[in-house]
Amino acid sequence: MSEISGIPPAETSPASALPLPIPTPSPPQIPTPQALQSWLPLYLSKTDSVLTHLSKLLSTPSGTDVLLCTIGYSSLLTSNLLSRLSLHQIRQAARLLIEKAIALPPNTTIVLSPSNIPVPSSRLLLLATRFKALSALISDFRTFGRLWGLLAIYKWAKATWNSPPEDTLIRKIVQIQVLANLCYQVLENGAYLSSKNILSWDKTKQAKAGIWSVRCWMVHVGLDIVKLGIEYGRRDKEMAEVKGEKEKEHREWMERWRKSLIVNLAYAPLTVHWSLEGGLVTEFWVGLLGTVAGGTSLRYLWRNTA
């Protein structure tokens, strides 16, 4: 019998005997003008929806403040990151110069020309400066907007007096918070108006008022965290006893609770930082923690703005 050619020997694997061609991926296709035209109404509709939603968010003072808070702290964070990147480039350039100098023969005269020294991109430094200026402007605007905060505190105090919380401990916490916020707002307003030469407090008094105002805010934040813990513990007991509560209501309550907890935990280190004359954290952490607090509040308001 004649041998049939083309059949691989028994010890040869099919994969090696019959190699399959590997298909090459085809390049992505460019959308046709007809496809782009069909997508245009969808994009316009989404853009209109976002702008309408943003307009509703900015129609309330709280929405405006939360958005400005997020933009302000994220701008500060961006400025710090760009400055760090520029500093890294400077260090890299200095390291290269030192390495080249070490590699030269002894007794070699080194002449450095400014044109030969690598410098970081001026665009990064310019962007860092502009982002920091934007952050400072937003901070000043938000402080100005809080000049009327005493009215909101009065309304809060009146509501607490007329309809105090049923729980004794929470009622005491809220009363202390009202007093702490009152002191905070008076001190901040005095320091801010004096910095604009409207009141006559000197620089030393302004600095002390600013520090003590933040300490009052720190009391509010700390008590808020304690209150959230108490409410969570008692909420679990109520949920175990009352089974008729709708799941949707509990989910909404938990969403508000998580938002408040994250915001307060982010602000807590900042209140300690600003209440100390020497500070506690770097500008990077101020921007990062502030962005977390503002972004969390913004996300919650965005999802719950009709």
TrEMBL record:
GO biological process: peroxisome fission
Compartments where located: Peroxisome membrane
Keyword field: Membrane, Peroxisome, Peroxisome biogenesis
Primary location group: membrane
Segments for region (Disordered): 1-27
GO cellular component, one term: peroxisomal membrane
The keyword Membrane appears for this protein: yes
PANTHER family: MICROBODY (PEROXISOME) PROLIFERATION PROTEIN PEROXIN 11C (EUROFUNG) (PTHR12652:SF25), PEROXISOMAL BIOGENESIS FACTOR 11 (PTHR12652)
Protein name (database record): Putative peroxin 11c protein
The organism of origin for this protein: Botrytis fragariae
